[in-house]
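Hi support team,

I submitted a single chain yesterday and got back a structure, but I'm not sure I'm reading the token output correctly. Could someone confirm the output below corresponds to the sequence I sent? I've pasted both exactly as they appear in my results page.

Thanks,
R.
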Amino acid sequence: QVHVVESGGGLVQPGGSLRLSCATSGIIFAMYPMRWYRQAPGKERELVARIASGGTVTYTDSVKGRFSISRDNAKNTVYLQMNALKPEDTAVYYCNAEEITYKGTYYSGHWGQGTQVTVSS
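Hi R., thanks for writing in. Yes, this is the structure output for that exact sequence:
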């Protein structure tokens, strides 16, 4: 069975920090690019950060310099360190194992249930 489980969300004041974790099982974790998305009420789901299987990282402009994505293949876990949080960062944050095709075989993507991040004074 595939499991993707986020944790670490909560309520934090503007300027504060949170570290989100995404623990996976049932997938060949090291093969997958991993992504963090977020969705605020009334807004489109937004790609926040991506880390390739080889470790290359990308970020959406609004979080560059504040957020950092990393992965620990030994623990099958991806992290999102969030610093200098702003109210506009408030959203449900979702972890995604990106779908891949390798040697003609399709490996489906997988989503976690999300974890709520609220930035408010």
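A quick pointer for reading it: The chain has a mean pLDDT of 96. Let us know if anything else looks off.

Best,
Support desk
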